[in-house]
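Marked as duplicate of an earlier ticket. Keeping the data here for the record.
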Amino acid sequence: MSSVDKGLYFLPLGGSGEIGMNLNLYRYGGKWLMVDLGVTFGDDTMPGIDVITPDPSFIAENRDDLLGLVLTHAHEDHLGAVPYLWPLLRCPIYATGFTASFLKRKLAETDFANQVPIHVIEQGSRLQIGDFDVELIHITHSCLEPNALAIRTPAGTVLHTGDWKLDADPLIGPTTDADSYRRVGDEGVLALVGDSTNAIKDGESGSEGSVYAELVKQIAAAPQRVAIACFASNVARVESIARAARAAGREVALVGRSLWRIYESARENGYLADLPPFMTETDAGYVPRDRIALICTGSQGEPRAALSRIAADDHPHIVLEEDDWVLFSSRTIPGNDRAVGRMQNQLMRLGVKVVTDRDAPIHVSGHPCRDELSAMYQWIRPRIAIPVHGEHLHMTAHAELARDCQVPFQIVPENGQIIRLDLPGGPQVVDHVQSGRWAVDGGRLLPVDGAVVRGRAKLLWNGAVVATVVVDRKGRLMADPQVSAPGLIDPDDPGDELADDLIEAVRGAVARVPDKAPEGEIAEAARRAVRKLVNQRLGKKPVAQIHVVRV
């Protein structure tokens, strides 16, 4: 692709073949436009890793040609990577008022917040970014101010849906601007790049209004303290919970920093203005248990979120006990099942009643089911369907539905594929670039498949053996080897013979090495010996480090 190439290209670097971590790029005339920059979250296979970002190496290396980043809405999987990756990109950011407010609060925790140029744009507005003519079109979703983007170029128009659903009663904000979608469809659309999360589900996703009615019943029925877990960014759900709790005669407290961040961003943009002030988690402890409702973060079992700490009896202010209820007004994101199940079991051991959407209709999805996808294709009538935002199962089902809706071409992308959209014979993969995942590890970013993260996981599952060997100039032992084996030996168990056997294994390995062998050869012999012993005894392949000191 040359700088004078007038083709229109699409490149996903995150969010294709997975749910979360969205990073999508469009190229025309040698310049790139980025749509969304999100995160996903670590699981049990990545100890110590809470946040994961897409690998932006390709576009970071080409940032001189990056015109800007447009954010479709304020969910973490669409903007959560900005505080980690923006210093590598250093491009302007375009967002609506609520999304911009939320992002600024996240950036306030960095040391470069005042360097980020954030341009606040109105919903329904149209702006020119280089050769990209971008129109924001309102749609409904489980977040304030969600937008699809009609991206017009001389080579054709792409409708990038972002996350969406069709909700006739969203409670906050307008309904979907169907007339604008029909208008864009009538103008002619080259490609629709769209949400695939619920493409395997028939029917419709349901309305936020129906959730409110059920929350009223559930909160009123709770005999003592009731906590409700939801996604912090679902402001309509927060309002539904607050109103349902007030109707039951309860005060409402927000428990979790991200909830307060969302609440302040919403108030700043004119939302939730008619609700009474929320209580803090500190003050909530002084309210009688049957007169308080707690809106909590942590619906996905995040270890440091409020509800996880409450379930582990580790929260500084909030305690749940017998006859209290917890309502999970959220769905479990694929991959979080074990963490959520573990947290729910902890709650039930405390005597807490757990209510999920399997027990009562207290949640609806923010993503389109098959009937909603069909309606969008009827409005837009694109030449090409490109499913994103889903695992391969979801994207394949989306592509098949698009074919049934008479879309001429469908292509299921993979992260790192550069796809040309404006070819007469249909879309074509023309190149591949680096893609992958980075782990946020304290103040640094590490490849998820790199040595540090892999080594940490290996330590978790296989333990380690560390030995220090002191030898003379000929390589003969000067003293007994010092051996420790964290994760393999119980230091409080004097009957554990493995420690003595490891010492003997090291001793024997050193004795078999020829005289005057280099330290590296001695260390490798001892390393092989201890790994062989542990594998034979325990079926483990530990990380083994042997330090050889020659005196």
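See parent ticket for discussion. The chain has 16 helices and 27 strands.
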